């Protein structure tokens, strides 16, 4: 009887996780649809990018879309990795994120004739991120199926002349959760190189 009750409670908990994940993904997709249908000519540009992140290590595809003269929403889907030093193990995880960015100095850079291609400017913003599931299971990892969190940040992006390559950096405080419990405050850092296509 006890095992049956525990099994039932576990099924309910897993069902709640699945429902929350579906709502999260549906909200992101709905937001992108709304933004794409309402996009107009703005100071910031709509961009498609491939990002190679150094910290945290991974690769992703992102789409940045203007929502106001100096503001964008950027969605990214990709793969990140975690390296376990003590056990020499590497775990890959599928991830998704949505960023809001306000490019507070892009208009001044434009007026001074500085490079603003690829939204080259300083920005502040917020992100919601999630590691959806591990791509490989490890003994060293809890192999959690769902992690989500958010952060506020300051960042800078600079395109390297006309090459299409960019250098990116952003950092700020974050809060992450596993299984809807255990808030983990930490420093959120994302840096790397991107290519616009």
Describe the structure.
The chain has 197 residues and is an alpha+beta fold. The protein has one domain (2-196). The protein is 22% helix and 53% strand. It contains two helices and eight strands. The chain has helices at residues 2-38, 106-111, and strands spanning 47-55, 58-68, 71-84, 89-102, 121-134, 147-159, 165-178, 181-196. Strands 1-2-3-4-5-6-7-8 form an eight-stranded antiparallel β-barrel. It is elongated and about 70 Å long. It starts with a helix and ends with a strand. The mean pLDDT is 83.
What is the strand tally? 8
What portion of residues is helical? 10-25%
Our estimate of the beta-strand percent is over 45%
Based on CA inertia axes, which overall geometry fits? elongated
Radius of gyration: 19 Å
* Number of self-contained structural domains: 1
> Mean pLDDT, as a whole number?
83
Please give the count of helices: 2
Which sheet architecture does the biggest sheet show?
Answer: 8 strands, antiparallel, barrel
Stretches where pLDDT is under 50 for at least 5 consecutive residues are none
């Amino acid at each position: 009887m006890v095992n049956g009750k525990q099994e039932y409670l576990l099924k309910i908990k897993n069902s709640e996780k699945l429902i929350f994940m579906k709502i999260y993904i549906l909200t992101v997709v709905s937001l992108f649809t709304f933004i794409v249908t309402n996009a107009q000519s703005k100071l910031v540009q709509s961009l498609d990018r491939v990002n190679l992140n150094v910290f945290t290590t991974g690769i992703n595809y992102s789409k940045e879309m203007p929502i106001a003269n100096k503001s964008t929403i950027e969605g990214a889907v990709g793969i990140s990795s975690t390296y376990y030093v003590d056990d020499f193990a590497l775990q890959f995880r599928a991830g998704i994120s949505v960023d809001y960015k306000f490019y507070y100095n892009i208009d001044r850079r434009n007026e001074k004739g500085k490079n603003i291609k690829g939204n080259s400017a300083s920005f502040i913003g917020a992100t919601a991120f999630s590691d959806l599931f591990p791509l490989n299971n490890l003994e060293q990892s809890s192999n959690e199926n769902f992690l989500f969190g958010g952060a506020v940040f300051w960042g800078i992006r600079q395109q390297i002349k006309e090459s299409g390559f960019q250098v990116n950096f952003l950092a700020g405080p974050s809060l992450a959760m596993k299984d809807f419990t255990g808030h983990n405050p930490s420093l959120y850092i994302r840096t790397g190189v991107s290519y616009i296509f």
